[in-house]
Amino acid sequence: MTLKTSHPLPGFYKVAHYIRLSDETRIWRSPRGDPSVLQLMVGTWKLLEPEHPKLVISFSGDEERFSLEGAKKKTFMAGLIRTVESTDAWLLTDGSDAGISKVVGQTVNEMQTTTKTDGRLMPYIKCIGVASYGSCRNKDSLVNAEEEIESEQKHFYDVTRTSGRQARIALNGDHTHFLLVDDGFHNSLASADSFRSRLEEAIQKTMPEGLDIPVVMLLLDGSLRAIDRCLKALRRRVPVVVVQGSGRAADLLAEAVHNHDDTRSEDAALKEILSKVPIYIDDLDDHKHMECAKKVLECCKTGNKITVYDIDHDSNMDKAILSALLTGTADPEDELQLAFEWDRADVAESSIFPQIDDNADLSGIMKQALREEKTDFVDLLISWGFDISKFLTMEELRGLYNLVCHLMPSLSLHSPHVKGTGNHSLCGIVFSM
Fold first, then answer.
1. CATH 3.40.50.450 fits 2-308+420-432, yes or no
2. What are the residue boundaries of the TRPM SLOG domain, all occurrences included (predicted)?
3. CB 177 within 8 A of CB 17
């Protein structure tokens, strides 16, 4: 589907792919090759190309009341950019043109490039919206008039015109793909949230059923719905990064995590959280206050699966995301490999090296660091006692020299990236404003 958005240049269109599907659609990949959401994403949309992502970031927050301005917004966007650049991460939101989804879209717009895949220009950064079809504005414009559709058929989508007083979610034109979840109801968000939770679980499941890509959820601001999303993620062993300082649900959960004590009685802990709920979240009735407090307490019981990041005092959001991925990882050498892929020698030094056995074989990491010219890791390995004189044998030196000679002719080549800007139907949208 193709979406037409406003742009300084007349006739400029932003293009996104979408599919409208039932909330009961199969997500996991089947050994028999049966149709599924993951098969669509990998086989049809080619989302694993040109680079296989090392991470999927799923955002949870308030799509209506969320506001992140000034220094906080700059810190968030800078941290997100560094994370995407390090990991080729997919970004997963509710797809709306408001709140955290809109801020994520703005960040994508700043750094988006295109790459040629199968002779076609495709967006390099994958920003995927999982939205409720029944709650979309102007959803009638997304329906195919003909039963038989062409693969290149486009739909023009106006994000400013409303159709009906209850239709309140406009799709954001900076997203690249949309999964529009249809449960047959109008203005129902629960099915889309549940579908997204199952999608996150499938993405991180090992191959061949899943994609074996780690998922991290970021909580910014939000209300009870955002807390519920985080709890579902934690139950599926998806780590959560709580952005303290972003407001409401995020600040409530951050404080609860800081104050949580396993030795206290559950009643005492629940009572303390309940007293804080109306301070942070002002749009809930008394019954919802108790529901929220219980869910916050259950989140706190997951312990090491929650990482609190203070956006007011720390500019390294990407480090917090990496720390969340490392939490609970059994093998320090696997953690070191992950830190290396992210090029975060600081995290390796402070959090990983103290756990590594003195007899561990680090020659593989040293070889990668030399070949990829990651000097911080070379220095770190040597400072921790790696014997470089024993490692750099004549054979190893010859291999490194040959590698450099092999790469030299390609140094002048241009970058392949071009700067750029119950019912199933697969199409493209053109956004207009």
1. yes
2. 16-299
3. yes
